[in-house]
Amino acid sequence: MLLEVKNLSVEYITSEGRGYAVENASFKIEEGQIVGLVGESSSGKSTLGWSIIRLLPSNARIRSGDILLKGRDIIKMSERTLNETIRGKEISVIVQDPQNALNPVFTIHTQINDILSLYRKKTRKTKLPLLELFRSADTERKKEAVSLLTKVGIADARRRIDEYPYCFSGGMKQRVMMVMAFVVNPSLLIADEPTTGLDVTVEAQILEHLKDLIRQYGTAVLYITHDLAVISEVADKVMVMYAGNIVEIANKSELFDSPLHPYTKALIKCLPRNATQKDELETIPGSVPNIFNLPHGCKFHPRCELAKQICKGKRPLLKRNHSSSHEVACFLV
Amino acid sequence: MNAKKGFLKRFEIFSFVLSSPLRCSGVVIVVILLFIAIFAPAIAPHDPYDINPVNRLSEISFTHPFGTDNLGRDVLSRMFYGTRTALFVGMMGVSVSLLMGLILGMIAAYCGSIIDDAILLLFDTLRSFPTIILILVIISVVGPSITNIVLALAITFMSTYGRAVRARTLSVKEEDYIKAAEALGARRLRIIRSHIIKNVVGPLIIMAGMDVGYMIALEAGLSFLGLGVPPPTASWGKMLRVGFDYMLKDPLLIIWPSIALFVAVAGFSLLAEALRNFLDPSVRRSVKGSLSAIRSQESIS
User: Fold this and answer.
1) Residue B291 included in any domain
2) Is the same domain home to A217 and A93?
3) How many CB atoms lie within 10 A of CB B57?
4) What sign does the dihedral B126-B127-B129-B132 (CA atoms) show?
5) Which chain B residues contact residue A162 at CB under 8 A?
6) Which range (A145-154, B207-216, B227-236) has the least confidence?
7) How many domains does the structure of chain B reveal?
8) pLDDT beyond 70 at A276
9) Considering the domain boundaries, does residue B257 fall inside one?
C-alpha cells in the first residue's frame, strides 16, 4: 500500500462562511497504480490532490483524517520534514496551467538543471581537478536533460534547452513539466489537470508520453481531471467526486460498464459518444451546489432523477458493493 | 553553432545601443561620468581644495582651463571631484532605497494583515510629503553630511519602490511556478531568494535608472541651499551657489556646473530609456536604425 487516505476533511474559511471542500474522503493507491479523480469544477478534486502534500491556500484547514504514505502520516509531519522527505522526493506534482508553471526569468536548462543537481548527485571521478570536476558534472547533466526532453517529444532539444519559457508553447511547457516531475523518481505523482488548456491533438501526444513515463518509472499517479474520456485512456481505478464527497470508487472497466451512483451514470451518459448525431448532448440539470450552502441529506439529491425521501434526510456513506473493489455512496443501490 | 549564437546574443545589447545615436549618447555619457569619477585624482589638473587667494576669480587660462572660483580653487578640478559626489549620492541613494523598498515591500506582501497595513501606512505617510520638503526635514534633523543625504534620499524614494515591490510580489507569489516550486519542496526563503526577487526587480531597474538622475539634481539643490555635502567637499550644487554670488562679474562660474548637471541628468535618463526599450521585446524587434531614434525621441518628449 503506497498511499492511504482515511476520513480526510478539508474546510475553507472565507468571508462567505465556512464549508467543507473535501468531506470524509477515504481511498487507497497501490504502488504503480494510476488512479483517476473526476468531478465537475469546484467539486474539491484539486483540494484533495494538494492536501496530500499539504500545500493548501492559507484559508484552508485540514480538519480531520490521516494521510499515510508508506505508513508515515503526512498530517503529523513538520513543514521541514515534508520539504525534506516528501515534496519533490516521494511525491511530485504537475500543475494545472502549463503557461505559468515555469519561472519566466530562467532558461529551461536552468530550471531542469536545478532539479537534476539536487536529486541526481552523481558519483564523480575524484581524480580530476576541482574545476574540471564541476564542468564535467554540468555537461553530463545537460546531456541528460536534453535526452529527457527529446524523449518527451521536444524537437531540437539541444538548442531549445537554452531558451526562455516564453519561447515554448503550452504543450511544450507541459512536456518540460513532465520531465521535471519524473526526474526526481517519485513514488507518487499528482497530476492536476495536466492537459487542460491544450488542444486535443497535443493532449493525445502528452498523454502518450505521460503513459510512457509512468510505465518507465513505475510511478503511482493520482490523475485529476474533469474529462472522463481522458480517464478512460490512462486510469486503472477511478474515483468520482461530487461537492466534496467521493461518491464512487471502482476499477475503470467496472465503472464504465456498470456505474452504480446516479451521478456517475449521468456523467457517462453525457459523454458525446453516447449521442447519435441528430441528438442534442445530454446534460445534468442544475449545477454543483456551493459548499457554503449545501443541501441536506445526499448532496446530489436535488439533481438526482431517482431521489427518494431518504435521500433528503440522511447523507449516504461510501460502502462496498458487489465486489470488494467497487464502493459507492448511495442509498438506492 | 550553439556557442556562436550565445555569443551573438550576449552582444545583442551593444548592437541595439549602437542602432540609435540617442541611445548611444546615454551610454557614452554615463561611461564618461563614471570614468571621471573613478579617475578624478589622476586627471584633475590641480588639487580641488588648494586655496590660492592671489589667483581668485581668474579668467580661463592654460593652467586653469575653466578658471578659478572665489577662493582661487581650480574649477575644472572641482568639477571632476563634484562628479564623484554626484554619482555617489545618485547611485548609493538609488541602491539603498531600492534595497529598503525591496525588504519592506516583501515583508508587507508576505506577512499581510497588520504588518502589511503598518508598512503601507508608512509608505503613504512618506509619499504624502512633497519630496524636497521631506528631504529638508530629514537633513535639518540629522545634519548635513554625505551619508545623511544618501539616507534622506533613500527614505524619500523608498516608498515608491516599496509599493511596486509589494504589488509585484503579491502577484508573483500566487503564480503556478511558485506553487510548483513549493510542491518540489523548496523552502520559503529559497523561493523568495531565487524565484521572486528576480521577477520583482526586473521592472524596477528602469525606474532606478531614471531616479539616479533625479537624485543627482536633488543633491545639487540641497547643496545649493547649504544643506548638502559640508565644505570643502566639491559638489556641483555648491559650485552653483558660489557662482551665484559672482554671477554678474563671472557668469562662467555658474555655467560650468549647470552644464555638468544637465549632462548627468540627461545621461541617466537616456540610459534608462535605452534600457526600457531594450527590455521591451516589441520595441527591440521592430527597431532597425532610424525608426528607433524617432521612437525614443517621441517617448522622451
Assistant:
1) yes
2) yes
3) 15
4) positive
5) 2, 6
6) B227-236
7) 1
8) no
9) yes
Q: Which domain CATH number covers A286?
A: 3.40.50.300
Q: Please list, residue by residue across A308-333, b when 16 or more beta carbons sit within 10 angstroms of its beta carbon and e when fewer do.
A: eeebeeebbebeebeeeebbbbbbeb
| Amino acid identity for residue A277 in this structure | Q
Task: Show which residues on chain A lie within 8 Å of chain B, measured between beta carbons.
Answer: 53, 55, 82-84, 86-89, 92-93, 95-97, 99-106, 115, 158-159, 162, 177, 180, 184, 190
Full-model pTM: 0.74
Does any domain span residue A38? yes
Per the CB < 8 Å rule, is A83 touching B198? no
Q: What is the pLDDT of residue B122?
A: 92
> Rg for chain B (alpha carbons), in Å?
23
Return d(Cα A173, Cα A228) in angstroms, integer. 24
Give the number of A-B residue pairs with CB atoms closer than 8 Å: 61
CA gap A287, A225 in Å, rounded: 18
Burial B222-255 (b: 16+ CB within 10 A, else e): bbbeebbbeeebbbbbbbbbbbeebeeebeebbe
Indicate if A139 and A258 belong to the same structural domain: no
B184 and A162 within 8 Å at the Cβ level: the answer is: no
Highest mean pLDDT among A138-142, A209-213, B18-22: A209-213
Domain count, chain A: 2
Give the domain extent around B76.
Answer: 60-300
**Pairwise CA distance, residues A5 & A26, whole Å:** 5
Which chain B positions have a beta carbon within 8 Å of A86's beta carbon? Answer: 185
pLDDT confidence band for B284 (50 / 70 / 90): low
Residues in chain B closer than 8 A to A93 (CB atoms)? 180, 183-184
For residues B216 and B87, what is the distance between their CA atoms, to the nearest angstrom?
7
